[in-house]
């Protein structure tokens, strides 16, 4: 693959195109300053304004959320995996019907695999603009977002209506539901009972991995973060490895499925059969299946990278062995 061809599979942090109207809470006070990014795949945006950087199917989606301090993402659920790692800032993740069943605070480099089937949200509790990177299971990202009923009701008070077709309509722009399209129905009380109220003790031990713990685990070999044998045991259609300076290798290797390189700290020299480049934190690089490649730090100092690799496992609910 030539450098020119590979360039179409690299998204630099400084070139990310945000969408400020991606979801139903785009006008809701407290959530109306967030920026959503769809980096790889169709994502789960409900807005036609969402820019997609790389449309090539990978078996998973890569996205990101950028938020100023005290800005939060409203309570929602997914049918497939939703895995976040903190790129910048300090973030509080919370869950439950009303967001008060449990919570955990993540620092830069920490990663969380939020169990499917629970309402979850997140908030930047740092002092500066923060960014979290996301991996969503499946090419269709689980068929979209399932919102807690109060989120839909609050949005209506601020001019946004979600149609049953999964699209947003903004009354502030003179938009309304097309003929034949009904509003997205609210979940019934019976349906809400199927969403568990998990305490922090049920979530944190098996679904959260800390950056510095992973730095210790990745000795001479990369640490398996997410996977059947990973620190976080799951088979959501992809695996995630954590690579450090000590565990990086210049030896070329390849995978039968697409993979993605996402630096957390340090600068990384990526070499492939046809060229090389350097990635910085926040950059995202898609590696085609069966293409030999390697990743090693290009400068001295702290260096860590998340490597997402598609697998043959179907995207679906959280699994634990």
From TrEMBL:
It comes from the Bacteria. The keyword Metal-binding applies. Keywords: Metal-binding. InterPro entries: Cupin_2 (IPR013096), GPI/OXD (IPR051610), RmlC-like_jellyroll (IPR014710), RmlC_Cupin_sf (IPR011051). GO terms for molecular function: metal ion binding. Signal peptide: none annotated. The keyword RNA-binding does not apply. SUPFAM superfamilies: RmlC-like cupins. Gene3D superfamilies: Jelly Rolls. Residues 69-132 form the Cupin type-2 domain. This is Cupin domain-containing protein. The lineage of its organism: Bacteria, Pseudomonadati, Pseudomonadota, Alphaproteobacteria, Rhodobacterales.
């Amino acid at each position: 693959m030539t450098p020119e061809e590979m360039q179409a599979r690299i998204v630099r942090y400084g070139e990310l195109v945000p969408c400020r109207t991606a979801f139903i809470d785009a006008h809701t006070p407290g959530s109306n300053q967030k920026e959503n990014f769809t980096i790889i795949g169709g994502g789960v945006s409900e807005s036609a304004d969402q820019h997609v950087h790389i449309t090539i199917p990978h078996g998973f989606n890569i996205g990101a959320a950028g938020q100023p301090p005290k800005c939060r993402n409203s309570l929602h659920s997914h049918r497939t995996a939703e895995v976040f790692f903190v790129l910048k800032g300090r973030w509080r993740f919370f869950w439950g019907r009303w967001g008060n069943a449990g919570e955990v605070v993540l620092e830069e480099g920490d990663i969380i695999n939020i169990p499917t089937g629970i309402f979850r949200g997140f908030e930047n509790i740092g002092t500066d603009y923060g960014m979290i990177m996301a991996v969503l299971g499946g090419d269709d990202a689980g068929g979209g977002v399932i919102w807690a009923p109060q989120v839909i009701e609050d949005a209506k008070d601020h001019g946004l209506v979600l149609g049953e077709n999964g699209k947003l309509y903004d009354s502030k722009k003179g938009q309304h539901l097309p003929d034949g399209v009904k509003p997205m129905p609210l979940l019934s009380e019976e349906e809400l009972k199927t969403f568990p109220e998990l305490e922090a003790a049920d979530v944190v031990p098996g679904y959260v991995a800390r950056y510095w713990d992973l730095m210790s685990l990745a000795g001479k070999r990369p640490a398996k973060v997410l996977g059947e044998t990973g620190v976080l045991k799951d088979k959501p259609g992809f695996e995630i490895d954590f690579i450090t300076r000590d565990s990086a290798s210049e030896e070329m290797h390849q995978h039968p499925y697409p993979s993605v390189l996402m630096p957390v700290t340090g600068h990384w020299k990526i070499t492939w059969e046809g060229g090389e480049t350097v990635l910085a934190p926040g950059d995202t690089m898609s590696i085609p299946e069966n293409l030999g490649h390697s990743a090693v730090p290009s400068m001295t100092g702290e260096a860590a990278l998340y490597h997402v690799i598609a697998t043959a496992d179907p995207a679906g609910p959280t699994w634990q062995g």
